[in-house]
Each structure stands twice: as C-alpha cells, then as structure tokens.
Amino acid sequence: MLVSGGAGYIGTHTCVALIEAGYDVVVVDNFSNSEASAIKGVEQITGRDIAFEQVDTCDIEALRGVFLRHEFDTVIHFAAFKAVGESVAEPLKYYMNNLTSFMNVCALMKEYGRPNILFSSSATVYGEPDALPVTEQSPRQPATSPYGNTKQMCEDILRDCCHAYDGVDGIALRYFNPIGAHPSALIGELPRGVPNNLVPFITQTAAGIRECLSIFGSDYPTADGTCLRDYIDVVDLAEAHVAAINRMVGGKMEEKYEIFNIGTGRPVSVLELVNTFERVNGLKLNYKMAPRRTGDVCSVWADTSLANSELGWKARRSLDETLASAWAWEKHVRNI
Ligand code: UD1
After folding, report:
1. Residue 38: CB partners within 8 Å, gap ≥ 6?
2. How many Cβ atoms from other residues are within 10 Å of residue 159's Cβ?
3. Distance from the alpha carbon of residue 36 to the mean position of ligand 1, in angstroms
4. pLDDT confidence bin for 108, thresholds 50/70/90
5. Do the beta carbons of residue 261 and residue 306 sit within 8 Å?
6. 110-127 pLDDT per residue, tens
7. Distance 153 CA to ligand 1 centre (A)
8. Pick from 164, 128, 7, 176: nearest CA to 76
9. What interhelical angle do 36-46 and 9-20 show, nearest 10?
10. Is the Cβ–Cβ distance between 7 and 28 less than 8 Å?
C-alpha cells in the first residue's frame, strides 16, 4: 500500500505495524519535516528494505509516476503540515499544501481505480466539546486554526468522493494526542526547532535542551487546574491503522465513508502526565505554571467504543510504558 508522509512520526510507526501484519508498503515523502534516517529506522526494526519515493504529493505528475510504478489498492495519507501556530501565521502555506496533496491523492486513486483511502484526521475537529467523552457523532466545531480547518476540509473531501464515486471508499481516523515512541527507540518524533507539543517539550527539557517546561494554564475547571487530554501511545495508534486497513481490504465496511475516534478513552491532566514522566523515568523536571496558551481547549477525550467494537482494536499500552519509551527515544537521539 502507499503511505504518504511515511517518513514522519506516525507514518514510520504505522509502516512498522503494517509490515509486521504482512502488508507491503511504498513510502512517499518529500522530507519536508522528516529525515531519511527515519526510513532506516523502519528498515532496522522490520529487517526489510522499504520501497521509497522522494516525491512531493503536491506535484501531481510526480505522484502519478508513483502510481504508474507501483501496484497498490490502498493509500494512507499522512503527508501534511501540522504546526497549529504556523498555520495561523501562514494560512495559505497550509491550505495549499494540505488540501492540494490530499486532492491529488484522491484524484489519482479514482483515476487508476484504487479504492481504499485512509485519512489522518484529528480530535481537533471537535474543538471545545459540549459533552465528554466525544463520540464520532459529537458535532464538529468551527476550526480555530487553518491547520484544524484543513483536517475538517479533507474529511469533507473524502466523504464527498466516497459518496460520488463507486470505486472509492474512505476511513478517517480522528487521532487524539499521539505520544511516545517505538520500544526499540529506533524511531520516534523528531520535531524541528522548539517543540509545540507537550511530550517532546518534556523530553527535551529532561535532556537539558530546554531550560524549563511551561505548563500552559493552572486555572482550568479541572481537578488540578490543568488541561485534560487523551494521550495515546503511537504504537497503539499505528495498530489502529492496521485494524482500519484490515476492515477496508476485507470488505467489511458498513458505509462507503467511516470515521473512528482513536484514543484511550482516559483523560490525563498535564500535571499528571508530568508527574508520571518524572516517576517512571526517575528524574525531576524543571517546570513552572504559566498563562493559558491561546487556542487551547480545556478538556477533550475520546469515546472509543466504536473503534473497539467495529475495528476490534483497543489501546493497550500504559501511560507509564509510553512515557518511558518517549524518554528512551530522546536519549537515543541525543546520545545520552
Ligand atoms: C495540538 C494541536 C492540535 C493537533 C495536535 C497534534 C493546538 C491548540 N492543538 O493539540 O490541533 O492536532 O497538537 O499533536 O496546538 N502544554 C503545556 N506546555 C507545553 C506544551 C503543551 O502545558 O509546552 C499543554 C497544552 O496546554 C495542552 C497539553 O499540554 O493542554 C497538550 O498540548 P499539545 O501536545 O500541544 O497538544 P494539543 O494542544 O492537545
């Protein structure tokens, strides 16, 4: 199958899970936010050579070449920009890239009669929910960033293509907060510059690269005053893709377009996450309470019963092991 953005954080972990499940993968990536070493990591873990094409999925003719050179009937589309703050500052960069690349993929899937499209969506589509946990039926809220808007727009594009075209089926997986790394510590998240996300900031602080973690907001209406999120181990998340692909290629979809929440179903506060990181890794983290971050929601976590029952998938890894894997990866990257 084709994996666009397969050199990225979630893409690499998903390639490993797909190969372990017996699927062949072709990775297309332009390394805009990843490195060739990530592909090497996948090869080391799986003991397989990865078919790789360095192509920008926004370049439809280059992407057509990939379709002509490789046989596959399924695409998993990860390739996208994902920095929320940057998307507010440079909306056109996000709309051009994230929408063009996805529409190119959909157009070529249709043109070449390749039926199965899996799209990486996000819990960001739920915004600040009225009721928790969120189910797939919970209303989407107006996006608060161009990044979030591209997730909603790509969901709509996929839904409309599935309904309009006989030969196209789609699944959107709405990820909650993916964290951690493969237990081998050979692949993981490689943020460029100052991390926006919590766990990379924590591990870089523990490694001495950042001086101090700011906890954004301690006055939220939660038990300890910090935000609640649903942190899912990236290997569990990767396995959810395999389950979704099994459903598609096994002809088990009930609708032409389906959506699944992919989370643990358990809310964890920022403070609880920081304390757990300190405990499992036996270290003290330099952190301070700071003002709220603009655009953050207070609480969001998943109702995962649909994915549990329909995909036969469940997040299995504990927060302890996930945060140990995150630190093991940071130490590997920094040679600590
Ligand atoms: C963010 C994006 C979301 C995107 C997801 C991808 C925003 C507003 N949302 O989700 O659209 O899909 O990343 O992974 O950016 N925190 C700190 N200190 C930090 C960093 C984060 O306290 O240095 C807190 C945040 O306030 C939040 C929690 O940690 O409560 C998680 O933050 P983060 O990892 O950035 O994820 P989200 O904001 O949930």
Report:
1. 7, 8, 12, 187, 190
2. 18
3. 27
4. very high
5. yes
6. 999 999 999 999 999 999
7. 21
8. 7
9. 20
10. no
Predicted local confidence at residue 109, as pLDDT:
98
Amino acid at 210: R
Which residues are catalytic, by number? 147
Amino acid at 190: L
- The response to whether residue 198 sits with its C-beta less than 6 Å from ligand 1 reads yes
Sheet holding 2-4, edge to edge: 51-54, 26-29, 2-4, 74-77, 116-122, 169-175, 257-262
- The strand pairing partners of 290, in sequence order, are 216
Residue of the CA atom closest to atom 22 of ligand 1: 215
CA distance 311 to 314: 9
Our answer on whether the CB atom of 214 is closer than 6 Å to any ligand 1 atom is yes
The residue whose CA is least distant from atom 15 of ligand 1 is 84
Q: What is the pLDDT of residues 240-273, one digit of tens each?
A: 999 999 999 999 999 999 999 999 999 999 999 9
Q: Is 83 in the pocket of ligand 1 (CB under 6 A)?
A: no
Distance from residue 47's CA to the centre of ligand 1 (Å): 34
Q: Which residues pair with 228 in a beta bridge?
A: 269, 299
Give the 3-state secondary structure of residue 52. Answer: strand
Report whether residue 184 contacts ligand 1, using a CB cutoff of 6 Å: no
Paired tokens of 322: 């996930």
Calculate mean pLDDT across residues 42-50: 98
Distance CA 227, CA 271 (A): 8
Residue 237 has phi, psi (to 5 degrees) of -60, -45
d(CA 312, CA 320): 24
Average pLDDT over residues 4-33: 98
Residues in the chain: 336
DSSP states along 146-173 = HHHHHHHHHHHHHHHHHHH-TT-EEEEE
pLDDT of residue 263: 98
CA distance 65 to 82: 26
Strands 74-77, 51-54: parallel, antiparallel or unpaired by DSSP?
Answer: unpaired
Chain Cα centroid distance, residue 303: 18
